[in-house]
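Work Package 3 (structural annotation) set out to generate three-dimensional models for the target panel prioritized at the project kickoff. During this period the team completed the workflow that converts sequence records into discrete structure tokens, so that structures can be stored uniformly alongside our sequence database. As a representative example, we reproduce one entry of 193 residues exactly as it appears in the project archive.
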Amino acid sequence: AVATTAPPPALSEDQRVYDLTGRSLDEDELGDVRAAVDRVVAAGADPVVVVRALLATPEETLDQVEQLQVAWVEATGAPRDTAVAVLVNRNPDDDTDARAGIFVGATYDDGNVPRGEQEAIVVEALIPPLRDGDVAASLVGALEHAHAALLHERAVNGAQGAREGGPRGHAQHGGLAVHRAPGVDHGIGCPHQ
């Protein structure tokens, strides 16, 4: 049976990485993920990462990663425009079967990490290691990709903003979720705009 609801966990501003499976990340891997999160924070974002054992559809994962981002904002006071949520829903019965997604605030959705870049983060970094059950490599890869995108686009947008007389503003929130199942290619779902 596929779970259709799963509220975000209790979140705290003192913790940005949650392994709710209790077995997806060992202490060294958890340290690697935390270091990648710290680099994203240093680039100006407010990320939260959650891994849990939950069989969910791609659409449910997309809804849940958005709910996670909103819950992070509410629990920590992080600005919604710079909050970034990364969610991995692992099949409790198969470590190589997972759905994953990223949901970014408005500043990043249309600016620093545009939709195409979000898609690349999920398709190129987040999903491939999950096929082998490697959650740490998945999360570190996705966070490093996001970090590089933030730094690159900040430099580009900073130069553009200076030419245009100020920073770029954005009003939309957006996210992507990718479905990965054994023997099935991934598909990307986008939120309603």
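The longest strand covers residues 94-104.
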